Amino acid sequence: MSTPEKKEKSAAIAAAIILVVVGIGFFVLPSIIVWLGDISPWLAASVGALFVLGFFLIFWLRARHQRRRGL
């Protein structure tokens, strides 16, 4: 079995990785939105909205997974 300290450390590392990846995504998102806006404003808005919703979806799925495992 894992110790509580190891579980906490693992959760912190996973959250940090998620935040770094999403942070990089939010950094490049304006360039992507401008590029897609040349094609279609609706496409650009959709991609932006999906990216923001995806950020919350990741943490919701992770919390659900942890609740199932009893963490």
Give the helices and strands, then pairings.
Elements: H1 4-39, H2 41-69
Q: Mind telling me the C-alpha Rg?
A: 16 Å
**Euclidean distance between termini CA atoms:** 12 Å
Mean pLDDT: 86
Shape: elongated
**What proportion of the residues is helical, as a percent range?**
over 70%
* Unreliable segments of 5+ consecutive residues: none
Give the beta-strand count: 0
Report what the structure shows.
This protein is mainly alpha-helical and 71 residues long. The model has no long low-confidence stretch (mean pLDDT 86).
Highlighted features:
single chain; 71 residues; mainly alpha; 92% helix
Could you give a short description of this structure?
This protein has 71 residues and is an all-alpha fold. The protein has helices at 4-39, 41-69.
